[in-house]
Amino acid sequence: MVCSVSDEGERVSPAFPGGQQQAEMENKSLPALPDKIIDFHVHLFPDRLFDAIWRYFADRYGWEIRHKLYYRECVEYLRERGVGPIVYSNYAHRKGVARTLNNWNLNVIDELPDLYCFAAYHPDDGEEALAMAAELLEHPKILGFKLQLLVQRFYPHDERLFPLYEKILEKKKRVLFHVGTGPVGNPWVGVAHFRKLMQVFPGLRANIAHMGGPEFREFMELLDTHRGLRLDTSFAFIPDFPFRFNLEHSCLERHRDRILYGSDFPNLLFPREDEIRHLLSFNLSQEFYDRVFLENGLALIREG
Q1: Does residue 266 have a cis bond before it (omega within 30 degrees)?
Q2: What's the chain's average pLDDT?
Q3: For position 28, what pLDDT does the model report?
Q4: Could you tell me the end-to-end alpha-carbon distance of the chain, in angstroms, rounded to an integer?
Q5: Torsion, Cα of 105, 106, 108, 110 (10° steps)
Q6: How confident is residue 6, by pLDDT bands cut at 50, 70 and 90?
Q7: With contact defined as beta carbons under 8 Å apart, do 8 and 40 qualify?
Q8: Measuring CA to CA, how many Å separate 259 from each of 146, 150, 219, 220, 230?
């Protein structure tokens, strides 16, 4: 079934409604979140690398990150707000940094309970990268690898990645892809490139960040033909923001077993709660919220 653009999805919703609208929202019976939720899209980096990323966002895009918290502070902040298991990622922006990042990852997931990781990988590291990947995939708290194609500037169907995909398939792990063209794009991202990858590795288990936006419909249609795909909600449901999921809500309900809640924390431009409240305002089934905010994530953690 084809998902259609919704008139409601095109309208702008306020981040913090006030007055009569606020009272109406408070009086309206909305579905509830599970007591503990899973955040399947968090960023954790070593402190100095976080600082460099935040400076880049400000200088390149004019984005001022709202929550400038380092890794222990990030985890504490989320735990205080009802998040149980946390799945985070980081990525190697260039050759030669993945090993250092992954040594840091191993220390962090050993230090903090209920923390899982999509590790860093760069194909320019050659055979060393593949040997490192084989070691990491044996760790129960490493769920797979993150490929941030916008930053890393290679295609998802780059043949240098094929040995990695084969190892991931063998170990029944996953890849977290930033492959959509929003909120900014370049020649290396887009659903056309991802389709080429799926033609070669149709059974690859993959998470698509940001619901694949703004190509929401095209990525949701891939769910019908590739059972290993999941979409995460990060940065796709911010009210009063142009880059926003704009399909009929029935599409979300129909694919409720294939969607994961993710926040993009701490690299947020708006309060973290805005997306959660916006998703709750859709007033979908309780099963949708139970699956998206908890059960689907638990299933993938057990799978890994």
Answers
A1: yes
A2: 92
A3: 60
A4: 30
A5: 160
A6: low
A7: no
A8: 18, 22, 12, 10, 6
Q: What confidence tier does 105 reach under pLDDT thresholds 50, 70, 90?
A: very high
Q: Is the pTM of this model over 0.70?
A: yes
d(CA 304, CA 302): 5
Summarize the confidence of residues 211-229 as an average pLDDT: 97
Q: Mind listing the domains of the chain with CATH numbers?
A: 35-303 (3.20.20.140)
Sign of CA dihedral 74, 79, 81, 85: positive
- Report which of 197, 199, 276 is spatially closest to residue 236, judged by C-alpha positions: 276
- Looking at residue 7, its pLDDT comes to 52
Which tokens is 118 given? 């999509």
For 197-222, b/e burial (b = at least 16 CB within 10 A) is bbeebeebbbbbbbbbbbbbbbbbbb
d(CA 297, CA 261): 8
The pair of structure tokens assigned to 274 is: 């805005």
The closest of 33, 118, 136, 143 to 84, measured between CA atoms, is 33
Q: Which residues pair with 229 in a beta bridge?
A: 206
Instruction: Name the least confident of 56-65, 160-169, 200-209, 279-288.
Output: 56-65
The amino acid occupying position 54 is W
Structure tokens at 280: 């709750």
Q: Mean pLDDT throughout 100-105?
A: 98
